[in-house]
């Protein structure tokens, strides 16, 4: 049965009662510099947004803006291609703001996600290793509620080509829905809430 559609505010055709969900992972991966550590550069770290399997998410996300702590030069960093990742050196932990901008045909507002850069392991705080990084990842689900029909048709059955892997891919966590069900449900609600404003905007046109 063909889905019911309606026309949104900008004349775009949307799928009524449909939801398109795309999971992503936001993470940091920090290596202690050991003998090379200085007062202002004790760690080399990476910050990224990735597909759950490390796949290229460029068909959904056109740009990621990473907002770093103001102690960094040019703290606003934009990445428009896979891997959506930056590499930095620093000395302190802080809260990062990550903004995801979606492909134009999705016609959705950007979404902001907060993430903590961790340099020190909570389990073994004194045990710093130059080989084993401290990895902090969070699972998020991007929920496109009543998506634009053309966007949905383009992405719903699209399998991203196997992209070259990030150099830190061996340190990525795996996310098993059964193990992380609680976290996943929490992420679903949070991101769904952020994206819901667009849906409400269009409800009056239903
Ligand atoms: C803290 N509230 O006091 C945090 C701030 C800021 C970390 C951490 C800058 C590196 C550079 C840097 O690592 N800032 O200057 O290039 O722990």
UniProtKB/TrEMBL annotation:
One Pfam family recorded for the sequence: YEATS
Domain YEATS: 14-158
Species annotation: Coccomyxa subellipsoidea
Protein name in UniProt: YEATS domain-containing protein
Keyword Nucleus among record annotations: yes
Key words, A-Z: Nucleus, Transcription, Transcription regulation
Keyword NAD: no
Compartment annotation: Nucleus
